[in-house]
Structure formats: structure tokens, C-alpha cells
């Protein structure tokens, strides 16, 4: 993502056995593929093998479609259940950002896009309030206002509208950048592995509402933030990244909110970058980060 | 504690109002007291005022008993409920350490005592297993073996024996250095504010048994340790210190245990130092660390 | 700064002796002053005493001018050399920001101002390039372009223009937010104690140009950033704040630049906040942060 | 090292080109080798390729000598300059530790050996003072006292004696655990890649003597420690690991020394572990840590 050079990112997971690396490496080597990154991991608990390999596009004599076609043969030779995908970095990742009123994460992401650090195409920002419309539009990005009524029917309709807007963008990532609504189960399912949330606590501590208030009440000495994939169970999805910052008895809840923002911003930005660089492989409720 | 110079440590808590600092500072100033450390904190939620002041013993014209006698007058002028104590650093703090089999925290504390970093008098190490007897005795410290049977009566008797051994030492701190028994309510009460535990998780995450297994299962990206005062509710007492260390998908439970040890050791050592330097003021279930 | 409540911040430094705290506390107490923050430090090497006290404005029966007039008497009674000031938090701090092309620090500061986290009045942004004019103006802040030619006369003239623009704003802080010009000695002197720089290394490592290149060449395992007051000697002024982030052999110079930005932003933001909250007391080439 | 299972660790470095991974992976696959860890890195600046692979010993039909013999063929096919080695984890690593008076690092390492965390064979501890003889011998390890006179001839003779004692142990690592003598050039050369030093600063800041004094004088906000390979230029060898801890204006030099110890211990322990697990690949003056 940070490189202008076009690359293919191959990700694969399968039951571990001998010879997988040789199979893939030989296939790539015989095609003349120049591997610039290669990572392997084998999980002894589940006996699952993970790999991510990045190949220079120009080193291969064919395009990504032909690569996929030929790679099917490789996966067949591996036998059994194989999960894999190949992504061409030539296409800018498409992202939709969901917000409420707090703008620090949105502001941070837009700054990274603006500076060229994060080479993504923000297709839309969708908010259940309008506070963040001006900053969004100042960056030339469409802002959609979808109010969320309290009554169940109104809320269901709002989620329907949200779904249409998101799906219209066909995004590689749906970022819940301090979006203060709990996604219904069917949206969690549809966006599985693509919806990233930033939770303002060091999970599994302080699940749910007002985690800084909970942290203040408990008297912890560090507060944190967690970027995780959204699943049907609240704040319980696979964790992508976490970090913490020190607090002390001088810090009020408001101070914790302020200090925590700095952690939320970097944790979300790192998590999103890794997700879009296809560095995150999910297996069960855990992640491998290559 | 780290200084050879004799000092008096004054700690005081009372409802906040104007003039408290002036009252104390004027009292000390008029007696010629040389203040080398002074800390204040006011908690807006509970309207409670905290202070800790350290005075050079030789700067006062009288001893600690006379200081206490005169300080009573100061606290009377403050009116209402006042909690305070004054400690003479001339006396080495007395410590009892409780252990089971894991020796890293004990080893670490003994190393700090041996190097002179931690100027304490370890009166005894008490273990429900004998694994750590040799290292304890190699330091010239008595080791007591108190086996803990599973049956309730036997266990109660063991706690009775433990209590006698601890109380005989009249310790300033009872350190649960990976002691794998839950203290009964009456011991928690008796040793309130003196019993320090090291829990091998970033509380309130992963309360109770096998926290590294819980952390591994949840797939967190940081593991931690917490030093807290022991209270009747398991792992829920006032937190003194916490810290974390990064882990990733390569880390097995055994790796987490190993990495976590380095955090447990420093978190316990810091917490114990602060406790013995009288830097920790407990109010409700929270601590102020000066 | 983060509180709407009006307060007076008293800062004082003088040779240490007994009775200073009593003198100040009694003065404030007799005037009915409600102290909300009080910090003391005594430096044994220089025998210098530092204090910062924050008083609720409404608790005093007179305004800040009368407070200053009366405080003069207190300082006289302390005798000898006394450095002090009193600031009324009712007035929003005035800030000028100097930039070149890299916008991450500016972007970050503007985001904090926009969200209300940093309650300051950014009087102007001045750049020797125009890259950051649009984002500045999008926030309704004047942007001045002062090109810096290479020839000494042209550069001197540019610094003259810069000085005029800055001084016209009479700022409480001049922030060098990745401003790529070395201030001449006379500007360092004029803005002493007000000019804050963010240097993209963990000083004193990697002084001067291209610190990330230097860090990459040396093979360090952590990179850092340093917020310091600007003095005549390059990157050698009193340090206000520092932080680091882990890097490894996978990180190219470009990766270090990217990761380093996240540290630069928070270190500068923290340093500026502390400076404006009058938490930083400079003595010699070192700082006390209350 | 932490596993009882016998493994072969293959490390290889060579100019990067396509097909290296395939070559090695195919070789291992055809022999039935079960790879449990595989890491790759390609340095774009030097075009150097690094890999480390760990194979289950029992998965291969021959022993480590035959593996080496056959691996020579693989390296020949790679062509050009190839650096490689293969280590059998069945043999416990042999370590010699050099000390002076400060015992915290020695104490820490012995604690890790004693608990089984660090499965090494400490052949000898050699000190230029006798302070640490008792703790060494309490662990059943030989302690040799080699006094270092100030006169050049006496010092040269002492280094001669040191060399004999070390070489007699044929160690996998020579650990300078706060050894306060600068190794002569010829010893640096002889022990190149095996001599690990712990320096008590965040290098390249504060090279040489009394780094905590230097840090205190400069007023830094973080202090650190660095584990590096010893080379002829003082404190300038390839860095293996670094870490930092926060300090503030309250910290005297003695406080920094105390806080720094906790960082020195873990940084040295991590560096030594990685070295002995053959995770560190040196190239030029930089390290790759797998």
C-alpha cells in the first residue's frame, strides 16, 4: 500500500503438513516470481498453517487472473481444506467510514489519507449525526446522514439504509470509527472480516458502554484501546491490535477520554493498515498478523 | 528507603477545604522542619484531600513520638474526620513473603535485597510447598513450610498456622509472591492495607485461575500484571501498579508465562517499594500513588 | 486549559530553604484561596525549589492584578533571588505555528483544536512553502508564506519577516511543527522559553538532519521524538517530552518516517499542552514538569 | 531452547535472487523435514537475503552431520557467496559470564537458569572483583577472579588470563554482564559474534562511562539499555535489543541507576536468549532478529 510498485499478495491457510512451503515456493520460483515478503506460521493448538507472500507483479509472466487460475492447481496439490486469496495491490483499497459525533479517529484517518500515508479511496463517510459532515466534505468525500431513531422499527430501517449505502461502495473495509450503534447480527455476518471497530478499552476489560468511566471507577493504572473485527457478540470479535497509555490518580474521566483518544487513533490506524495490506489472517476468534 | 538519611513520612487524608496545606506547612515551618518531598491531591468525586510529606528527622527539635503528639493538635484544627500516620524511616520495614512453587518473584525480591536496592528486613518466607526453601535459606532467611490440604478443616488449620507465623513477624507488608491460595475473608480483613498480591493479568481482565491461558484463548495482543491490595473479593482490591508487554500469534501459553514473568517481577517490586515508602494512599477501592 | 473554570496558575522558583511552602500556603489560605493543584520539587544538585499552584479565581476576593501585587510581598519575604509568574487561565493561549511541507503535526494540532481538546487561539500558521496553506485556511486560520532563499542575505531577510509576523501575534508559544529552518541565535534568545520544537529522534541521539536515516544506518531497535525548547545550540535545548516506538529489520527508512510521525504528533501535542498549562518550569538546561 | 524437542536450526544469508526459498524448501520437503519455524528477510539496501528455519530433528532420516553435508549441495546451487550454519538444539548452549561488582544482571541470569527458563550451561563466571563469587558458587558454578591492574602490562596479562579461561570453556556466548573493562581489539575479533554486552544507555546516546550521569545532566525523559555485540569500537557494535523506561525530574542519578537496572536485566536476558536460539543474524553493523 505504501509502495507504488505493483504487487500480488497471496494468503493461504490450511491444515499443517510437510511440503507446503516447498509446493508454493517452487510454483512461484518456476514462474520467475520475485518474493519480497514471505511469512509463515503454524499454530500447534489447531494444527493450522498460515502463510502470506508478496510477489512483484512484473516478475511474473502473466496477470493476477492467470496467477489465480494456476494457483488453484497448487492448492489442489495441497489437498484437503484450503482457504486462500490473492490481491492485486494495483487497485486502491475502498473504504467506508461510520461515525457518530466524536471526530478524532475520522480526523486522524483523513490526515493520513491527505498526506499520502494511507493510500485508500474513502468512498463515503456515514454518520448518525451531522457533526462530522463539514470536515468530511472539506476533503471532497461524500457524507451521508442516516439518523438512528430509538424505536426498533426506525432503527431497523436505518440499518437497512446504512447497509445499502455501504454495499453500494463495495468496500474492502467498513471502519466503525467511534460509531455508537451496535450492528445487527445480519450485518455482522455480511461484513464479516471486513468490519473493523475501535473500542476504547483494553479488551476484554470494560466491554460495552462508557469504558473510560468503568476504568476510572476501577482505578486502573493503564487505559487502552482495541481494534477488532466486528462479530455478533459485542466487543468480542478477533483482536487485530491493542495498545495502552499510563494514567494516574490525577486523571479524571475527562482526562482519560483525552489521553485515550491518542491510543484509539493509532490503534485504529495500524489495524486498518494491516487489514488493507492483507497482513491479518483470521482463524477462529484469533488473528495472525504478518 | 533508598536513602540512609533518617526521615519522617507524614500521610494524611481528610475532606477537602481551604487552608489544609497552610495548616500543615505552617506547623512544620515553625518547628524548623525541612520538607524534602511534598505531594497533594484532591479528588473531586469524593471531595477527599490527600497529602504525603517527608521531613528530615534532624531538622526537627524533637523525636517522632513528640512529632505525633503535636501533629494531633494540627489534625484537631482541621476538624472532622482525619486519617493520618507518621512513619520513621529509621526502622527497616519488616516483610513476610508467601510463595508456592514459582520462584521468579521471590528470586527477584531477594536479588534486590541482596544488592541493597530494597532495604527491607525479610523476616520469613512461608511456602505451601518446599521448592523455594533452598534459595530462601541461602540468603539466611527462615523458610516455613505450611502445607495446604484440600479438605476444608485442614485448610482452615493451615491458614491458622500461616496467620500465627505472619503475625509473629509483625510485618509492614505481607507479599503474596505468586502464592496460589485464596486468603480467607478474616485474613484479608486483618491484613487490610498490608497484604500485596501480584496477579498475572492486566486486571480487571482475566480474574482468577490461569490468566495466561485465558489471554491466549482470547487472542489479546498485550499481556499484563497487576499488583493490588488483597481484599475479600478475589483480584478486586485497590490496584497499586500495572504494566503490560506485547505478545503475538507466535507466543504459546508457555511463551506468555515466560514473558509475563518479567512484568510480574517489576510490577510487584515497584508496588512493594511504593507501599513501604508510604507512597500509596488508599481511599475506597482506589489508590493515590505519590 | 481543559476546564472552563477560571483559575490562576502561580509558578515560582527560588533557592530552597525551610518555610517556603508555609509562606505561600498561608498567604493563599488567608485570602480564602482554594488550591486545586499544588506541586513542589526541590533539586538537591542546584538547591533550587520549584512550585506550581493552581487556585480557583472565584475563591479569591480580588483579580489577578491585585493577586500579583500582593504576591510581590510574599516573594520579598522569601528573600534572595525569586523567579515567578501568575497566569490567568481566563485568556485563551495564543499560538503561532511554523511549518515547511510535512503536515502531520499541523494536521494533528488542528484536529485537537477543532475537537475542543486544545483550547488555544492559533493566530497564524507560517510556512516557507505553501503546501499547508489550504488545510490551514480550511480551519479559518491565516497562512503566511515566507520563502527562505539559500543566500545568507535573503535568508536573514526572511527571518526578519518571520519575526515580524510572529511578534505581531504576541504568542504564548511558537511551535516549530517540523519547520525545516534553523532559527538564528537572536530569535532563539527573543523567543526563549516560548519556542517549542519537535525533533524526530530520541535526543541526544541523531542531532541534526535526517535522523531517521541516521537511525536506520545505526540499526537501532526503537526510534523516538523529542519536544524541546529551542536554544542557540541545535537540538540541545531543555527537553519537555520524549517517546519512542519499536522498529525492526523490516522497517525501511520510509517505514521509520511513517511510524515516527505517530510519535512526533503525540510528543509535540503533550509538550505544547504542558507548556500552555504552565506545567513546565525550566532551570538551566533541564525542565521540571508538574 | 525452551522446548525439549530436538531441532535443527538452519541460518543462511546470501545475495537475494528468485528461487532461494524454493531451493531450500524443496530440499527439506524431499527429505521429509517438518519445518516448525521459517523466517525470511530481504534487505533492499544491500540486496542481502536472510533466512532462519527450524526443523524437527526426528522428521529427518539422518543426523545433523549428514544434514550439513547435504546442505552444502543446496548452498552450491544457490551460487556465489553464501553464509550459513546449522545448529543442533540437543546440545545445551555453553555460556561464560564476565562481571565486575554490580550483580543485578548476573543475579537475574542465574534466576532464569535456576527456574529452567534459560536452559544453558554456565561454564564459569569471571570477575575482576570478588563481590559476586558467593552468589555464583551458591549456584554450583565456578567463579574465577582475574584482577585488572591499571598498568598496561598488568592489564594485558589479565586479558591473557581472561582469554584462556573463556576459551577453555569454548562458549557459545561470552556475556559482559556489566563487566567494567574495555576488551582489547584482538579479543573483540576472536569473540566476534559471540560476545554480548549490556550497555546502560539507549545507544547511540551516552556512549562510554557513566551514562546515567550523562542522561541526568541532559535531562532526558526516558532512559534505556542496549544489548549489542562487542566490536573494536566502544559501544558501537551491532544492536540486538534495546528498551527504555520513563524518568522525570524527581529522579536522581541513583534513582536512574535503580530504574535502569530493571531495563538492563530484561534487555540482556532477551538478547542472550535470541542469540542462543540463533535468532540473530548479523550483516554489516546491523542485526536481523527472527
Automatic annotation (TrEMBL), chains A, B, C, D:
<dbReference type="InterPro" id="IPR041729">
    <property type="entry name" value="Formyl-FH4-Hydrolase_C"/>
</dbReference>
<dbReference type="InterPro" id="IPR004810">
    <property type="entry name" value="PurU"/>
</dbReference>
<comment type="similarity">
    <text>Belongs to the PurU family.</text>
</comment>
<dbReference type="InterPro" id="IPR036477">
    <property type="entry name" value="Formyl_transf_N_sf"/>
</dbReference>
<feature type="active site">
    <location>
        <position position="235"/>
    </location>
</feature>
<feature type="domain" description="ACT">
    <location>
        <begin position="9"/>
        <end position="87"/>
    </location>
</feature>
<keyword id="KW-0378">Hydrolase</keyword>
<dbReference type="InterPro" id="IPR044074">
    <property type="entry name" value="PurU_ACT"/>
</dbReference>
<dbReference type="InterPro" id="IPR002376">
    <property type="entry name" value="Formyl_transf_N"/>
</dbReference>
<dbReference type="InterPro" id="IPR002912">
    <property type="entry name" value="ACT_dom"/>
</dbReference>
<keyword id="KW-0658">Purine biosynthesis</keyword>
<comment type="pathway">
    <text>Purine metabolism; IMP biosynthesis via de novo pathway; formate from 10-formyl-5,6,7,8-tetrahydrofolate: step 1/1.</text>
</comment>
<protein>
    <recommendedName>
        <fullName>Formyltetrahydrofolate deformylase</fullName>
        <ecNumber>3.5.1.10</ecNumber>
    </recommendedName>
</protein>
<comment type="function">
    <text>Catalyzes the hydrolysis of 10-formyltetrahydrofolate (formyl-FH4) to formate and tetrahydrofolate (FH4).</text>
</comment>
<dbReference type="GO" id="GO:0008864">
    <property type="term" value="F:formyltetrahydrofolate deformylase activity"/>
</dbReference>
<keyword id="KW-0554">One-carbon metabolism</keyword>
<dbReference type="InterPro" id="IPR045865">
    <property type="entry name" value="ACT-like_dom_sf"/>
</dbReference>
<dbReference type="Pfam" id="PF00551">
    <property type="entry name" value="Formyl_trans_N"/>
</dbReference>
Amino acid at each position: 500500500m505504501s509502495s507504488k510498485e505493483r504487487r500480488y499478495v497471496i494468503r493461504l491457510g490450511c491444515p499443517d503438513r510437510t511440503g507446503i512451503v516447498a509446493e508454493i515456493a517452487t510454483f512461484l520460483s518456476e514462474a520467475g516470481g520475485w518474493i519480497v515478503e514471505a511469512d509463515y506460521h503454524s499454530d500447534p493448538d489447531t494444527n493450522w498453517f498460515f502463510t502470506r507472500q508478496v510477489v512483484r507483479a512484473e516478475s511474473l509472466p502473466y496477470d493476477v487472473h492467470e496467477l489465480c487460475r494456476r494457483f488453484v492447481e497448487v492448492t489442489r496439490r495441497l489437498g484437503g481444506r484450503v482457504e486462500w486469496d490473492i490481491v492485486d495491490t494495483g487497485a486502491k483499497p475502498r473504504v467506508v467510514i461510520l461515525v457518530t459525533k466524536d471526530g478524532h479517529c475520522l480526523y486522524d484517518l483523513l490526515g493520513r489519507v491527505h498526506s499520502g500515508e494511507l493510500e485508500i479511496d474513502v468512498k463515503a463517510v456515514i454518520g448518525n449525526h451531522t457533526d462530522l459532515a463539514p470536515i468530511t466534505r472539506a476533503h471532497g468525500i461524500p457524507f451521508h446522514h442516516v439518523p438512528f431513531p430509538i424505536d426498533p422499527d426506525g432503527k431497523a430501517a436505518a440499518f437497512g439504509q446504512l447497509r445499502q449505502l455501504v454495499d453500494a461502495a463495495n468496500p474492502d473495509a467498513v471502519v466503525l470509527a467511534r460509531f455508537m450503534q451496535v450492528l445487527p447480527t445480519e450485518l455482522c455476518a455480511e461484513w464479516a472480516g471486513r468490519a473493523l471497530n475501535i473500542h476504547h478499552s483494553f479488551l476484554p476489560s470494560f466491554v460495552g458502554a462508557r469504558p473510560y468511566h468503568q476504568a476510572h471507577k476501577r482505578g486502573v493504572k493503564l487505559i487502552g484501546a482495541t481494534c477488532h473485527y466486528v462479530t455478533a457478540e459485542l466487543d468480542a470479535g478477533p483482536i487485530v491490535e491493542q495498545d495502552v497509555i499510563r494514567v494516574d490518580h490525577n486523571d479524571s474521566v475527562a482526562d482519560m477520554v483525552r489521553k485515550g483518544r491518542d491510543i484509539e487513533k493509532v490503534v485504529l490506524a495500524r489495524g486498518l493498515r494491516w487489514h488493507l495490506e492483507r497482513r491479518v489472517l483470521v482463524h477462529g476468534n484469533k488473528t495472525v498478523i504478518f
